Amino acid sequence: MAQILAPTIAFPPAVSKAVEEAATAFFKTSCNMTHVPNGKVDEDAPSAGIMSTISFMGDPPWAFALAFPEESAVTVAKVFAGFEIEFESPDMGDLVGEIANVIAGDISARLAKKGIKAVMSLPTVVRGGSVSLLVPSGVSTTRLVFSGPGGSCWFNLVGTRTDGLNFRRPGA
């Protein structure tokens, strides 16, 4: 049974640290956003948003979903791209996927320096209204929130199963 992401099961600290460092480096220089320790997201606020997911195969396997509310996505797009991009345009999906891809590449490099294998997938982008990330029970999770003058975004990190079951590797 799926549950709404809740940071109740410990997520691997080395991975969350690499995500925090890579995202902080990107958002600070590109969007004037900073990490908000113990930041909260209002799951009940009805709003449109856009999210990009990337999976990492390695030790351990894990994934992230980078989510932006509509207003934040539009503001970040203008700052990052240097021109306005409409929320509903295909270019917005490309931009959010590219942001996720740039951060994921930095995460992989940071983890490799620590001897942690993290081969990343291509980004997948979804856009919708009033959506929540659902995760299976028995997995480790955490959330990292970033905020600045142009809005906020967050990473939902979903990791290793803690119930003794293993992820199935692609092609297995």
UniProtKB/TrEMBL annotation:
Pfam families associated with the record: CheX
SUPFAM superfamilies per UniProt: CheC-like
Coiled-coil zones: none
Chemotaxis phosphatase CheX-like domain location: 51-140
Position of the signal peptide: none
Keywords: Chemotaxis
InterPro entries referenced in this protein's UniProt entry, alphabetically: CheC-like_sf, CheX-like_dom
Protein name: Chemotaxis protein CheX
Organism for this UniProt entry: Gemmata palustris
Taxonomic lineage from the root: Bacteria, Pseudomonadati, Planctomycetota, Planctomycetia, Gemmatales
